[in-house]
């Protein structure tokens, strides 16, 4: 879990950076390919985020991690 979470965050940031690159790329003749690449990078970002959330949820349900922080109620 200590390796999975940082790798997932790195993948999320990398795909966000790729989308930014494709958005700022100056290619006058191939606008549709640029849009397709940017949409694909953003879709990967969403997929990585959902996968990270599901892995954290599964780790919590399996007892590998314990919630800490503010108590639930008084």
Note the gap between the termini: 31 Å
Largest sheet: none
Low confidence ranges: none
Structural class: mainly alpha
Overall 3D form: elongated
The tally of beta strands, per DSSP, is 0
- Radius of gyration, Cα only, in angstroms? 18 Å
Helix content: over 70%
The percentage of residues in β strands lies in: under 5%
Task: List the quaternary state of the chains.
Answer: single chain
Query: What string, H for helix and E for strand, traces the elements in order?
Result: HH
Task: Give an overview of the whole structure.
This protein is mostly helical and 74 residues long. The model has no long low-confidence stretch (mean pLDDT 86). The protein has two helices and no strands. It is elongated. The protein has helices at residues 4-24, 31-62. The two termini are 31 Å apart.
Write the layout of secondary structure elements.
Elements: H1 4-24, H2 31-62
Helix pairs in contact: 1-2
Quick description:
This protein is mainly alpha-helical. The protein has helices at residues 4-24, 31-62.
Provide key terms for this protein.
72% helix, 74 residues, elongated, mainly alpha, 0% strand
